[in-house]
Amino acid sequence: VQLQACGGGLVQAGGSLRLSCAASGRTFSSSVMGWFRQGPGKEREFVAAISWSGISTSFADSVKGRFTISRDNAKNTVYLQMNSLKPEDTAVYYCMTSGYWGQGTQVTVSS
Q: Could you read off the pLDDT of 50-107 as tens digits, one per residue?
């Protein structure tokens, strides 16, 4: 099983990025999928999650109203749309589902 995250990069404050995470090796269409992040010198923290149907979502307070999460079960892929990015969003972002973790993708927001 592999989770391949991509879409990170360097962006100015106020900008946007869209992360994607494609799962392979098995289907996760019936599983919750989520995103976590780990900033410099910080512990890994929850960012967002989405139910298998895509109907239910949850977000950390720090990203509510700025980030959205979606999924395409046909592609076994979960997305994280990040808008109005702030320097404090700088972190390595990881996708996770069913106990499996992706390798992480770096997001850097400059002020």
A: 999 999 999 999 999 999 999 999 999 999 999 999 999 999 999 999 899 999 999 9
Alpha-carbon distance 54 to 29, whole Å? 10
Tell me the C-alpha to C-alpha distance, in Å, between residue 78 and each of 13, 51, 89.
24, 11, 19
Using an 8 Å Cβ cutoff, are 75 and 33 in contact? Answer: no
**Tokens encoding 50:** 């989405």
| CA distance to 12, 78, 100, per residue, from 21 (Å) | 23, 5, 12
Query: Do residues 85 and 67 lie in contact, with contact meaning Cβ atoms separated by under 8 Å?
Result: no
The C-alpha torsion from 15 through 37 and 7 to 90, rounded to 10°, is 40
The CA-CA-CA angle for residues 102, 50, 97, to 5°, reads 30
Please return the burial class of 17, using the count of CB atoms within 10 Å of its CB with bins 0-12, 13-18 and 19+: buried
Cβ neighbour number for residue 3 with a 10 Å cutoff: 24
